[in-house]
């Protein structure tokens, strides 16, 4: 929403700023690094880093880099699947942010020294017996707290691989990230973004920032499709300013229930330089669920992805079922991967 009258501005003062300018179709520059114009905020965060959390997270980081996700008590099965796959891939630099006491107590037993309690000023969520429904008020509050959580960790001088708990690790991502960052200072390249959204059937290998303007994409045509649930961000003042801009968008009147559009708009209107994670190594759920995409990927590369994001599917049970079908669900009691009608080997080709 954007107010254009004095009466509207009086009722909704935060809506008086002009809406972010929509850019035309975006193509990758020759060097793969995008540098964006700033509309920006340079207000530094006033939140002081928790000394206990700082000590834990900095100790876990390797080379100043750390994989991080967050969970509440109801989401613990997915959090366990998340960290079990990291352990299987022999990734040692990871941590979880617990957003309620149930999650903190459970993970403190299961993963000593790998869990920190989210400050109540960031996420004051209480545990629930049932998982939060997609786009419910509780789910929205947690998703809207993501930029604050990431900024909180960045202030501890740690670079963050931010992952939702529906991301599965098949191999250590940090060597790939290091290759992509090689030779670039944090001022020259601050963020590695994963591509979300759909791909055209005739070009399933497409990997780009935005949808084309073709009518088949409907309301998404021309819009950016980067993922707010999987990205790598380096600590710097500019990175924290981008995250604050993302936060501010989420606080605007009529921000809606979706976090990701605000992530894309904040990134588009900031000056933060970024490049794309290779889609064949970091596929979203839409790509990985496509037999055509897997077939093309196998012919091109012949190796499995690094991280798979099991999104583009709604509902706790549906997501769990697809994890099992893909052979990507770990039963904590058995410490074994559950497979379904399609074999793990076949899906990871």
Automatic annotation (TrEMBL):
<dbReference type="InterPro" id="IPR052636">
    <property type="entry name" value="UDP-D-xylose:L-fucose_XylT"/>
</dbReference>
<dbReference type="GO" id="GO:0016757">
    <property type="term" value="F:glycosyltransferase activity"/>
</dbReference>
<dbReference type="Pfam" id="PF03407">
    <property type="entry name" value="Nucleotid_trans"/>
</dbReference>
<feature type="domain" description="Nucleotide-diphospho-sugar transferase">
    <location>
        <begin position="91"/>
        <end position="323"/>
    </location>
</feature>
<protein>
    <recommendedName>
        <fullName>Nucleotide-diphospho-sugar transferase domain-containing protein</fullName>
    </recommendedName>
</protein>
<dbReference type="GO" id="GO:0005794">
    <property type="term" value="C:Golgi apparatus"/>
</dbReference>
<dbReference type="InterPro" id="IPR005069">
    <property type="entry name" value="Nucl-diP-sugar_transferase"/>
</dbReference>
């Amino acid at each position: 929403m954007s107010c254009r009258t004095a009466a509207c501005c009086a009722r909704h003062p935060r809506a008086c700023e002009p809406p972010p300018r929509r850019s035309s179709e975006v193509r990758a520059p020759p060097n793969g690094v995008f540098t964006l114009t700033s509309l920006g905020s340079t207000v530094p965060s006033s939140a002081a880093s928790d000394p206990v959390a700082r000590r834990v997270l900095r100790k876990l980081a390797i080379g100043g880099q750390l994989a991080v996700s967050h969970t509440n008590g109801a989401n613990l099965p997915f959090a366990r699947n998340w960290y079990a796959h990291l352990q299987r891939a022999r990734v040692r630099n990871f941590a979880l942010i617990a957003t309620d006491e149930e999650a903190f107590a459970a993970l403190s037993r299961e993963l000593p020294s790998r869990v920190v309690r989210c400050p109540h000023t960031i996420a004051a969520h209480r545990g629930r017996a049932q998982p939060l429904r997609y786009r419910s008020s509780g789910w929205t509050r947690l998703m809207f707290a993501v930029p604050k959580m990431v900024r909180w960790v960045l202030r501890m001088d740690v670079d963050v691989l931010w992952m939702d708990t529906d991301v599965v690790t098949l191999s250590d991502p940090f060597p790939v990230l290091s290759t992509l960052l090689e030779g670039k200072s944090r001022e020259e390249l601050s963020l590695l973004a994963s591509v979300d959204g759909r791909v055209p059937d005739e070009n399933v290998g497409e990997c780009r920032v935005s949808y084309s303007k073709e009518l088949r994409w409907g309301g998404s045509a021309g819009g950016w499709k980067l993922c707010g649930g999987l990205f790598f961000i380096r600590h710097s003042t500019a990175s924290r300013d981008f995250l604050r801009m993302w936060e501010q968008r989420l606080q605007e009147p009529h921000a809606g229930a979706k976090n990701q559009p605000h992530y894309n708009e904040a990134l588009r209107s900031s000056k933060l330089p970024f490049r794309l994670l290779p889609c064949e190594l970091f596929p979203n759920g839409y790509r990985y669920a496509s037999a055509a995409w897997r077939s093309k990927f196998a012919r091109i590369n012949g190796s499995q992805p690094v991280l798979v994001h099991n999104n583009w599917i709604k509902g706790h049970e549906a997501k769990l079922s697809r994890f099992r079908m893909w052979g990507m669900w770990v039963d904590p009691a058995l410490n074994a991967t559950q497979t379904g009608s399609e074999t793990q080997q076949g899906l990871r080709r």
